[in-house]
Amino acid sequence: MEAIVFLGTFNAAEMFWYPSPDLCLITILSRRSTDNSFDLMASFLEMCLQRWGFCNIAVLGSEHGKQAWKSYFLRRSHLELKMTKGRSGGDYTCKSLRGHTGRVVGCVYLSGNSPQLPDFWSSTPTVCSSSSDGTVRAWDVQQGVQLWCSPVQSPLTGMVADGGHGGVITSDSTGLLKAWDGQSGQEMSFYSSASPQCTLLPYSMEGSSFLSVGTSQGSVHTLTSPSLSKLSTLVVCDTFKVNLLLASPDKKWILAGTTENMDMSPKVLSIQSVTCPSEEEDPLCQCLPVSGCSAAAFLPSQPARLATVHCKDNSHSNTHHNKVLSVFDVIIKKTRFKTEIQVEQVEKFELVFEGWTSDILLEGKGSSTLVVAAHRELKVYTVKGELICSFKDHTEPICSICVDSFRVVTASRDLSLRVLTWKTDRDKGLTLESRYHLLGGSHSMSRGFSYVVCDYSTIVASVEAVDGKDVLKAYSFNS
C-alpha cells in the first residue's frame, strides 16, 4: 500500500477503494473527529506525498475539498495506471499531425496538462512545431487538428517556448529571430543575430523574461522577451558555435560552451551581469575546470548544481570509453574588493558504455539523480556515481529523451518510443522500470524518431519522413 489519503477526519463514514497493482486509495468522507485524527491525517498525507511528491494540496482546505480531492486522486491514479500499462486502443489514442512539408526542427508545449492542477484532466494540451519549410504551426494534441500556421519564411532552425508570455521564439537560417503570439500566431517582434545557427535559451528572473542566444561566431546575445531588444553581448568561445546553453534552477547562472572543440572549457556566466550589464564592470564569468564537454545538465531540485560529461584528463578522443561525469556547485564569493564566481567540484566518476557515438544526452532528476543516454543505452546514476539501473531497449541509437517526475521517455531511430516509470524501491531507493514501446509507423515511410516532448498526460514526437515531410505523433492517455 503506497498511498493512503484522508479527506475530512479519521472516523470513516464511507470509503472508496481504487484497485491497482501498487496503489490503494482510501478516501475518508466523514467530518466527525477523534483525538488523534489530525496526527493520523498528517501521517497518511506524508505517505501520499512520498508517492506523489509534487501534488497540489491547495484544494484540501476548500469548501468543496472532499469531492475535489476524491475526483483528483481517482482521476490521477486512473491516469497513471494507464500511463504505466500503455495498452494500444484502451489506455491512449494516437493522432498524426500532418502539414509540414519539411523537416521538423523544434516542438514545444504552449500549454499542457500538469498534476499540480486540481482539474488537470479538463485542460487541452497544445504544441507548436517549427520546420525547415519555414512555418510555425500550433496543434490541438488531443483532437489532432492544426490551430494556426505562420506565413512562410526562410527555413527555420530552432524554436523555444516563451513560457512567461505563452508564445514561442524561432530562429531561421539567416539568423533572424522572431517572437510569435501563441494564441493567434501573429508575429510580435524580431531581431537579427547574423548567425545561421542559433542556440536559444529562454528564462525568467524577478518577473521579467529574457532570451539568451548562442551564435555560430562564439558569442552569447541576451535579449528582452518577447520584445527581443538587445541587452548585452559576450564572447564565450571565439570562433566556435555556442551550442551548449543552460540556465540554473535558481536563475542566477548560465552555462555556455561548445561541443565542437575538445580543448575548450564551458563558462559559467552571471545572469544578473548579462541582463543588467554595467559599463564600469565586465560581466561575471568563470571557466569550468574541464575541457571537451559533450553534455551538461543542472539538477532541477538544487539551486545551482551542475553535471557535465567531458573528456578524461589529457584525452581528446570522442568515444565513451574515456568519458567522465563531473558534478559542480556554482556559488558566488564576495570579498571587500571584488565579487567572483566559484565552481566547486562535488563528485567525479567515469562513464562506461558499449559502442561509441559523439552524441550523449544528459538530464537531471530531483537533487541527486542523473539520466544518461548514449548510442542504444540508457543509464541512471546517483551524483556519487552509483549505477542505479541500465537499459538496452532500443535497436538503434537514442536521439532524444524526456524526463519528468513520473517517467522517462526515450525516442530512437528504430522508430519507437520507450516509456519507463520512476519507482521507489524499499532496498534500492529511487529506480526506473521499463514499461512498453510506442511505435511511430512504418520503416518504409520513415527514418525514425528525431525528437520527443511530454507533459503529464501526453507525449508528442517528431518522425523523420523519407519524403522529407516530417510528421508529429501525438499520444494522449485517457484519464
UniProtKB/TrEMBL annotation:
Keywords: Repeat, WD repeat. It holds the Pfam family WD40. This is Uncharacterized protein. It comes from Oncorhynchus tshawytscha. The lineage of its organism: Eukaryota, Metazoa, Chordata, Craniata, Vertebrata.
